[in-house]
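Late entry, S-adenosylmethionine complex.
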Amino acid sequence: MRYHVLTLFPEMILDGLNTSIIGRAMNKGLIELNAINIRDFSTNKHMKVDDYPYGGGAGMVMQAEPVYLSYKSVADDIISRTGKKPRVVYLTPQGKVFNQRMAEEFAKEEDLIFLCGHYEGIDERALELIVTDNVSIGDYVLTGGELPAMVMIDTISRLVKGVLNNDDSAKYESFADNRLEYPQYTRPEEFMGMKVPKVLLSGDHKKVEQWREEESLKRTKERRPDLL
Ligand code: SAM
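Prediction complete; structure with ligand written out below:
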């Protein structure tokens, strides 16, 4: 899986994803992260990438040209390597709200381009030309698309073969089968007077399975009945 992130803040993407499981996956070459600075494609002598909105109104808008050129710099390469146009995800509060199903679908791709907006957003013409998917991470407004891109990259990477030490971890997690996961415990058996449920110490796999099934259903009913 190769991620290409078009952004005004590449260091935020690189620093943010460089640790723990995702950092290790990069070191192992299971995923590749390429952050492209949109500002490098400004044709303005002051390297400006934004301007006032036509029609007036608050804030600045990212200009179409540097966004388009930054896209071309990666897309042309991908097209000549794979023969197909990559999917381009624009992170926007106006998109479809991201979920685990969408992550599973994106994980099938070999290359994904993420486009991060800033200020009031991006000139609509660049979006019309390059974007294939508009994705939001929730009904609230952030200052930029970098954190949403990182949220998506983290979620998708966990589904890439070999990224998690045990590939089963992703299979039996929350949202698999529209359920939340059952409660988890580890040593010690007793903590501040609270004991681990007996069935988990029984060694009876069938019973443990049944208990987990029941707890998962109970928890989903309590916390997220909309999933059922
Ligand atoms: N003016 C835009 C609107 O009302 O739809 C919001 C612009 S927002 C301040 C700046 C950038 O942050 C957006 O272009 C987008 O890339 C990103 N962003 C903000 N909220 C987001 C969300 N919930 N999901 C994904 N991206 C978001």
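Residues 91-94, 116-118, 120-121, 136-138, 140-145, 148 surround S-adenosylmethionine (CB under 6 Å). Will revisit in the morning.
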